[in-house]
Design a protein that fits this description.
The chain is mainly alpha-helical and 226 residues long. It is built from nine helices and no strands. The chain has one domain: Methane Monooxygenase Hydroxylase, Chain G, domain 1 (Up-down Bundle). The radius of gyration is 19 Å and the shape is globular.
């Protein structure tokens, strides 16, 4: 029996549907990160492993879809979006999922414990970074409406507004990351140097999720402006 590749059928209509599906997968990776940190804070290694496996499985799905989309995306598209722009946008979306996977992987590879006084600001930073990714996903979900509206009108104005909000929230995460780093700095003398190093890396990666979400929004702004 002849089978139909679902990605190929989607691309036959438009490359935007699989782009949106990929963004949802990437955001699902990010969505598990708060529970991952809650498990770490609680010292529940079984739950840490559980959410790590969920993130890794979803990231693999996102990778598979991204690779298929790259392979099948036509070199010439009769639409108001350049193929290179779509590939760059896909790369940024992929980076969101990759960063969530990096965070989960580090948590498993290194037996980490949350230093005293860091739990609450850590929760706040993680959640705010997730907020940026959620909003970036909403921006990508507007692709169909934007195309229908010729990248103008109220649809474009709505996306610009969301991108502005992403920029504001990402600035907040930068400030929160600096404050959390200061808390860690104050604890350095009480910790093993290698633990300090891994926590600095972890804080950087948490912030990177928001940074990639901001870049997704900025890329969409450029697509509309063109």
């Amino acid at each position: 029996m002849r089978t139909t590749n679902p990605i190929a059928s989607l691309l036959g209509k438009s490359p935007f549907k699989p782009m949106q599906a990929h963004m949802r997968m990437a955001n699902e990776c990010v969505a598990h990160v708060p529970a991952l940190f809650e498990a770490l804070i609680a010292g529940d290694q079984a739950e840490v492993v559980k959410f790590k496996e969920l993130i890794f499985a979803k990231e693999q799905e996102a990778d598979d879809l991204a690779n298929e989309l790259r392979a099948r995306l036509p070199k010439s598209l009769f639409m108001p979006v350049d193929r290179r722009d779509l590939l760059e946008l896909l790369e940024l979306q992929d980076s969101m999922a990759d960063t969530a996977q990096d965070i989960a992987g580090l948590m498993i590879e290194r037996d980490m414990t949350v230093p005293e006084g860091m739990a609450e600001p850590l929760r706040d930073l993680v959640q705010r970074c997730v907020d940026t990714c959620n909003l970036a996903t909403k921006v990508i979900e507007e692709m169909d409406e934007l195309i229908s509206a010729g990248f103008g009108g109220r649809e474009a104005a709505s996306v610009f507004d969301m991108v502005d909000r992403i920029n504001v929230i990402e600035d907040e995460t930068d400030e929160m990351g600096v404050k959390l780093t200061q808390v860690l700095f104050a604890k350095e003398d009480e910790m093993k140097p290698v633990s300090v190093m891994f926590w600095y890396q972890m804080i950087q990666w948490i912030g990177d999720m928001a940074d990639y979400a901001e870049k997704v929004g900025d890329r969409m702004r450029l697509l509309i402006a063109r």
